[in-house]
């Protein structure tokens, strides 16, 4: 009933506006006419409004930029993030400069060249020199930005992984993440989806020696200033490992392993001071709409000193130990 009433109100409003416009047209036809004078007056007002719009628009943009700045991400907590942040701000600077210049020109021209009695517009078909410059300058600027972007891509994604990297697997499934540390040998044990069975939910091959010291956790701890090589896998659909504070994102794709190498540079404690938020915690979230409970798919991330990290890792159970424990518990039942 409410929907019907709303529809009737909308239809009646449209009819009312249309009739009002028609009435105004008829009234204006009855008035004595001095078209040129009227048009000139209107032009003047429009030109002034254009200038006013320019000023109000910039004040509004400035206000928005400063009042919403607090919602931006804090400084990057990884070496690679600092590189991509720099590229982002350079892009913003170039785009911002062009935006300001073109908007000023657009509205200023509207005001400056409004209709004036006796003034005639200068007409020319084209100017080769001008056309050359407005084609060449944007081309050079864009080529520069693209070249710079490719270099950043190379520096983050294609450079050889450092020798001293720590290998960690991020295993995604509907709807949680599991981290697998490679253990002392820094080598992840073989895993295959057909081996997924009860407690072995990552399908790790227990006959592979490299898997014995693997450690499975539901929280991701990282030692500061240590290159981390994340290996991503998925059990079911495409998920995405997203850690905004490190500017890290990579899809977890079923049937293949993807990877991302980065070095965290700011510990959780330091970041709490930087953000002035004693409750701050790094986070990993899924960034692909992967199903009904996608919104809850996340993992807590802690960056700490190497000593604290080793202490934490030392307190975790290895894969083989946890399998033995689970088997004996099941046998007792
Ligand atoms: Cu997901």
Secondary structure layout:
Blueprint: H1 2-30, H2 35-68, H3 79-112, H4 128-158, E1 166-173, E2 176-181, E3 215-217, E4 220-223, E5 228-234, E6 239-243, E7 248-252, E8 258-262, H5 268-274, E9 282-286, E10 298-304, H6 306-314, H7 319-332
Parallel strand pairs: 1-5, 4-10
Antiparallel strand pairs: 1-2, 2-3, 5-8, 6-7, 6-9, 9-10
The structure holds copper (II) ion.
Short account of what is shown:
The chain is α+β, with helices and mostly antiparallel strands and 333 residues long. It has helices at residues 2-30, 35-68, 79-112, 128-158, 268-274, 306-314, 319-332; strands spanning 166-173, 176-181, 215-217, 220-223, 228-234, 239-243, 248-252, 258-262, 282-286, 298-304.
Description:
The structure is a single chain. With 333 residues, the chain is α+β, with helices and mostly antiparallel strands. It has a domain at 166-332: Sandwich (Immunoglobulin-like). It is 47% helix and 17% strand. The chain has 7 helices and 10 strands. It has helices at residues 2-30, 35-68, 79-112, 128-158, 268-274, 306-314, 319-332, and strands at 166-173, 176-181, 215-217, 220-223, 228-234, 239-243, 248-252, 258-262, 282-286, 298-304. The strands form 2 sheets. It has a 5-stranded mixed sheet. Strand 6 (239-243) and strand 7 form a beta hairpin. It is elongated, with a radius of gyration of 31 Å. The two termini are 61 Å apart. 18% of the residues are buried.
């Amino acid at each position: 009933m409410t929907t019907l009433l709303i529809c009737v109100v909308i239809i009646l409003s449209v009819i009312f506006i249309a009739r009002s416009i028609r009435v105004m047209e008829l009234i204006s036809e009855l008035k004595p006419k001095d078209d040129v004078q009227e048009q000139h007056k209107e032009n003047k007002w429009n030109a002034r409004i254009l200038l006013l719009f320019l000023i109000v628009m910039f004040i509004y943009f400035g206000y928005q930029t400063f009042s919403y700045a607090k919602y931006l991400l804090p400084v990057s907590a990884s070496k690679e993030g600092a590189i991509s942040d720099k590229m982002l701000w350079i892009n913003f600077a170039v785009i911002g400069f062009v935006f300001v210049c073109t908007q000023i020109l657009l509205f200023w021209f509207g005001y400056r060249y409004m209709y004036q009695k006796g003034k005639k517009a200068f007409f020319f078909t084209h100017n080769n020199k001008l056309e050359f410059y407005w084609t060449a300058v944007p081309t050079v600027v864009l080529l520069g930005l693209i070249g710079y972007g490719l270099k950043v891509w190379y520096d983050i994604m294609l450079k050889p992984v450092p020798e001293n990297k720590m290998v960690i697997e991020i295993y995604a499934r509907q709807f949680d993440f599991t981290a697998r540390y490679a253990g002392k040998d820094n080598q992840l044990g073989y895993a295959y989806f057909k081996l997924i069975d009860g407690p072995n939910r990552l399908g790790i091959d227990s006959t592979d020696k490299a898997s014995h010291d693997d450690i499975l956790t539901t929280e991701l701890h990282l030692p500061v200033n240590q290159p981390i090589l994340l290996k991503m896998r998925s059990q079911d659909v495409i998920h995405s490992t997203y850690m905004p504070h490190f500017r890290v994102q990579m899809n977890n794709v079923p049937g293949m392993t993807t990877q991302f190498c980065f070095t965290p540079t700011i510990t959780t404690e330091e970041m709490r001071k930087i953000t002035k938020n004693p409750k701050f915690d790094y986070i990993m979230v899924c960034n692909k709409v992967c199903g009904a409970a996608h919104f809850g798919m996340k993992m807590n991330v802690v960056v700490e000193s190497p000593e604290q990290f080793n202490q934490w890792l030392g307190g975790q159970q290895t894969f083989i130990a946890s399998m033995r424990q689970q088997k004996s518990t099941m046998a007792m039942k």
